[in-house]
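Most newcomers find our protein records easier to grasp once they have seen one. Each record describes a single protein and holds just a pair of labelled lines. A learned vocabulary of local backbone shapes supplies the integers on the structure line. Nothing more is needed to start thinking about how sequence determines fold. The record below serves as our worked example for the rest of this section.
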Amino acid sequence: MRLDDLIQVVQWEEAESALRAIRTAVFIHEQRVPEVMEWDEFDAVSVHLLAHNSAGQPVGTARLLPDGHIGRMAVLKEWRGQGFGSALLRKSLQELTRQHQQKAQLNAQISAVPFYEKFGFRVLGEEFMEAGIAHVKMTLPLK
């Protein structure tokens, strides 16, 4: 089975517990993002992507804001390096194209810039801090 087939487009209400578990592990525990900064009003109005391993366990997520921003992309540590991040990003771009968005936008952690550049994203502007982590804005025109 291809990894792309293990990515589902879900709504917050139907997958909240799995989405919370992944984001808590990656952002709150691993990256030390304050919990108050992780949860916001955008979860309920966004489209979410949920990656499962071949056993059906949730291993990764991403969030698509109504304006085309990709965010909250996370893969559990033990599943990194196996293509789930790439599959999540491909599915995110497909979903944004399906929504007729003109461009994909995201705030990338500096360490992730080369990953996004492989997909054609370009850095816009200067580095900034978000939740104590250095980021840059990136964008990709959608055809």
